[in-house]
Design brief:
The chain contains 12 helices and no strands. The chain is mainly α. The protein has a single domain, classed as Orthogonal Bundle (MetI-like fold). α4 packs antiparallel against α5. The two termini are 51 Å apart. InterPro entries: AA_ABC_transptr_permease_3TM, ArtM/GltK/GlnP/TcyL/YhdX-like, MetI-like, MetI-like_sf.
Length: 275
């Protein structure tokens, strides 16, 4: 386009990418708000309150042993996590070993337990006394829960730890060896401390997943003293013919997992700033 004097004017441009992105977000937010309003109008709120949030049953759930179930859940999770962390570290070092049989054993273990559902491991361990009469896992039912969750968790943690070890600059290890430090000592004092700082966020995520997997402990046929949150909530829900106790148990899980999620995000931000 030109003016009367013959001077060319710049061609009119369309909307900028930033404006296009802003318009797209506005449309998405509008659709989301519309769906929320429709859901709120269609939902039967009295029925939802009666089935999921009955005040009397909330009080019963909070006063009839949920504290013990919460503590059991934490104990099951922490014991299994510590066992899995130790076994996972050993497996990661075996996986990186120059000795062939060590690598083969570690690889077979990791692939086997990563591909096997945790519930199958629980069932297999609960049936061990039938296959081996007289066999008793110590600290029942905690011992069986720790072992089952630890076996599965160690397979996942081994791969995470292996990645952390490989992320440590090789020059540091070579410098340590040039100073006469034995390889095993260099691994303990130089490689592993740095590797664990690198993989701390994913390990915390594994702890969150293990907390939720602790709900599989119900397979062991627990007594009241060994109930974890899911078993406690389900039994009370069956007794009362109402789902409110399960909702309370779900919120109790959030008391454990939400703070861990916040810790993970902060560690990831700190790690990103350090890089």
């Amino acid at each position: 386009m030109t003016t009367a004097t013959g001077v060319a004017l710049p061609a009119r441009r369309g909307i900028s990418p930033r404006q296009r992105a802003r318009r797209s977000r506005l449309i998405q937010y509008s659709i989301l708000l519309l769906l929320g309003v429709v859901a709120a109008l269609v939902a039967d709120w009295p029925q939802i309150g009666d089935v999921f949030f009955q005040p009397t049953l909330i009080g019963d759930a909070l006063t009839q042993g949920i504290g013990r179930a919460l503590l059991n859940t934490i104990v099951y999770t922490l014991g299994a996590f510590l066992l899995g962390l130790f076994a996972g570290t050993v497996l990661a070092l075996m996986r990186l070993s120059s000795v062939g049989p060590y690598r083969w054993i570690a690889t077979a273990y990791i692939e086997f337990f990563r591909g096997l559902p945790a519930i199958i491991v629980f069932i297999a361990l609960s049936l061990l006394p039938l296959a081996f009469p007289g066999l008793r896992i110590p600290f029942e039912p905690y011992g069986t829960a720790w072992l089952a969750l630890g076996l599965v968790g160690s397979a996942y943690m081994a791969e995470t730890i292996r990645a952390g070890i490989q992320a440590v600059p090789k020059g540091q290890v070579e410098a340590a060896r040039s100073l006469g430090m034995p390889p095993s000592l260099a691994t303990r004092r130089i490689v592993l401390p740095q590797a664990f700082r690198i993989i701390l966020p994913p390990l915390t995520n594994e702890l969150i997943l293990m907390t939720k997997d602790s709900s599989l402990v119900f397979i062991l046929g627990l007594s009241d003293a060994g109930f974890e949150l899911t078993k406690y909530g389900r039994d009370l829900a069956n007794t009362e013919a109402n789902l409110t106790p399960l909702v309370v148990a779900g919120f109790a899980y959030l008391l454990i997992t939400l703070p861990l999620s916040v810790v993970v995000r902060r560690m990831e931000k700190t790690s990103a700033k350090a890089r």
